[in-house]
Amino acid sequence: MSPTSPPSSAELPIGSTPQVGDRSSVMVVPGGPVVGSVRPPGSKSLTNRALICAAFAEGASRLTGALVSEDTEVMIDSLAKIGVRIQTENAGRTLIVEGVGSSAASEQTGDSPHEMFIANSGTTVRFLTAALSAFGGRYRLSGVPRMHERPIGDLVEAIAPVMSGTIAAVSGGGCPPVEIESAGWTGEPMSVAGSVSSQYLSGLMMAAPISGKTVEIKIVGELVSIPYVRMTSELMRAFGGVTDWNLETTQSIRTGGRYVGTDYAIEPDASAASYFWAAAAITGGRIGVEGLSEDALQGDVGFVRVLEKMGSRLHLQADRIEVEANELRGVDVDMGEISDTVQTLSVVALFADSPTRVRGVAHNRFKETDRIGNLAIELRKLGARIDEHDDGLTIHPLTTGDLERLSESTDPIVFETYHDHRMAMSFALLGLRLPGIFVADPACTGKTYPEFWADLERLIDRPHHWFSQETNE
Ligand SMILES: O=C(O)C1=C[C@@H](OP(=O)(O)O)[C@@H](O)[C@H](O)C1
Ligand SMILES: C=C(OP(=O)(O)O)C(=O)O
To answer: Were 67 and a residue from 33, 42, 212, 385 both cysteine, which residue would form a disulfide, CB within 3.0 to 4.6 Å?
Structure first.
């Protein structure tokens, strides 16, 4: 799909949400400063952790503020297959989970495998692989083609020596599908590598209470995305699990206890919030995100500190983080702890007055797509110089000449999104500043934020232009 002249568009009412396969691109109409308030949906990371803890708890839990999206739906559907009953209220944002308790190895082995479809949800496949191996039984977890290219070998290798039974990642390079036939964990100490994804360690930590054992987990080598591991500890504690961890002094974690049903309120998603904070920063606007503070469990609230380093002003309140635009300068920043916001920041960096170097995110190549290589390919479509590094990117800002050329051009530029929700939401920001920016496959935001386009329209108070597949092909 690459139109050479703008196709005829359909204007839909503000607040419309694209359906998968329904419309193949969207053009956000540029305008002035974006000003306002927004509350993104619940955190994906917190929702899927809370679902794991609640599912294997004794008793019922009530989760409020939950995310309703593909990544949480595949978790819920998979848990339902092992008999976890989950009722929904408030259009799915409240989940009442009847826990099944801890290890059920004896009842589950011998059955035909439970087939679980986990789409492209890293948290779901990694957390469930650990949890189900600890719970016991036969399972097969498979997803979309990209999921079968996303590594899980380090997790499988960590589990195999301490599990009674067999576990394998059957695609080349140690990728899903994952096949498990388990009679539970032995309780022996484990070792896990953490340089590709922190989700392996988080999965093992959360699985220990499910195994009914207290387990020592040694972290081998570098650990990426550390704030997510802290989040795991906090979530486990909220549900009665025990973690003993001091990463500053030790590279190992003791984890165990038993989960008990709990009422738990989920924070809005901080990675989703990054798009709105960035929208303020690049349009001369001011946007407050409700329901988040710097004390949030999600490390991605740290994105606003990077914006501050670039020149934006922050207004911090107990339950709201507001970003106000100011002149933007380039920064040299390690984003290893907030890697889901690299695409957002790269778009912001295009509008700064000097280059930005993003470091520490080599693991971004293993996510929904290669978030270094493919990000560079797309951003270069604007004419910007983007240097690709093993561990990140250098983004050279658009020059005044580039901005003039792009502002006057009537040629559309189509941004491919690679089935990656964060590509789509980040490129939408370009459309706030520049005409003719088409974002392909807008429905891919459904992985974590189905209402993204609707929320953005309400905030900017003007409709996007939607283009159907037929129009563009
Ligand atoms: O544990 C989590 O909830 C997550 C951890 C991060 O993954 P990595 O640990 O693979 O960086 C992040 O990118 C992902 O969106 C969610
Ligand atoms: C990397 C992501 O997701 P996951 O690893 O959970 O699929 C993400 O949401 O940006």
So the answer is: 42
